[in-house]
Amino acid sequence: MRSVRARAALGATVVVAVALVGAGLAVLLVLRANLTDQAGLQAEVAAREVAGQLALDVPYDRLEMREEEDHPVQVTDEDGRVVAVSKDLEAISGTGTDQVRPAPSPAAESSTGSGDDGSGDDGRDDNDDDNGGHGIPGRGEVDSGDPDFSNGTATVDGDTADYRFASVRATTSAGVTLTVHAGAPLAAEQEAVGTVRGAMLIGLPVLLLVVAGVTWLVTRRALRPVEGIRREMAAITASEDLSRRVPEPGSRDEIARLARTTNETLTALEASVDRQRRFVADASHELRSPIASLRTQLEVGAAHPELLDVPGAVADTVRLQALAADLLLLARLDAGERPGRTTLDLGALIHEEVSQRTGDRIPVAVSVPDSGGFEVAGSRGQLARVIGNLLDNAERHAERAVAVSLRAERGGVVVAVTDDGTGVPPDERERIFERFVRLDDARTRDEGGAGLGLAIARDVAARHGGRLTVDGAPEGGARFELWLPSAG
Question: Model pTM?
């Protein structure tokens, strides 16, 4: 099944079906057990009544066996022979013997029939009857323990039915042990269980259809916003228009959060694509100028070798090479390249970078404490590139002074580069870190660079877990601060 609605409806139906079947079987078992116990209790009462009479030495042919209440009775002796049965009992099973014709043993006859004058007076008084003969000297007794129960059938006056039999033992005054098997009909139990089972068989399919239908409708309603999101995403993919957004439902459920997250993803993707497009356009524009200048010089040199500006061609080539290196580094940073984790001394790195800048217009003043302890973890080449870019930016804008200092601060190391130039306006201090941004439009490209140095510096700082900010310097120029976490 490819439909979520179908799978949800089927799953809910299966779960409900299993639960209902389990509950139905439990109900049927409990109902059957309760009704069977009730039938067993009735059979035990009937069996104890007859056992009480036997304990009082009532003759077999004068036993009162409650035939009118549909309680078949069978009495057997110690040898399993039938000595008495209830009236109209034609067949029986489940009591240990299927005999229904009395064949009393001589001992039993002598113990219950001697002295009988036919008047029914066996020497009992009313008090003896009430107590059932239990524990009275000279009388028999009835086993007071739990009776044995069994299920079977009996045919009474031509009608065969299922019964619950209770077996109670009684001992006569002569010491003869007899067992009374009395049954109670299970028709009520069977009828009740059959009625409940029939109701379940009829109601279960109907209920499952209702569950499946309701689940289908509820799932379809719940997934309707998802279908809207899918259609809009398909349209965005087909049109490649990242400015479009998926509809957001007014609810606060998971689907609404999915729609909001999708729109946030589309916004980030649109910004990324726009940034990439601007980057490609700006890179192409920046590359066009040195390439055109270099081509012009080479063409002039080819036609008039004496007019070839070799220093200018070399400068254009160097500028083109630096721009290509910057673009390559930005591409690696955008691709998520992780910097190395080499531990290095930032103070030593600053001294090394400044010592290599022999052609600077303004000498760089270095203020690095001799105490050391300025170790950071990262890529030596990339961090050297950051310091070099900050110094290049300061050299372009400074009038008479450029300074670099180093200090420890809040679990990290801060490199500060200051100049005494015009500074950066507060509303432009974040914009200067964008790619190909130059605030001084009047500055020539040869003097001002391509506008990638600060963007590279901030990206490298972020990849190293640090940050790069700009503020006003006390001398009136700009103060750039690079914070990097300490190696420890």
Answer: 0.51
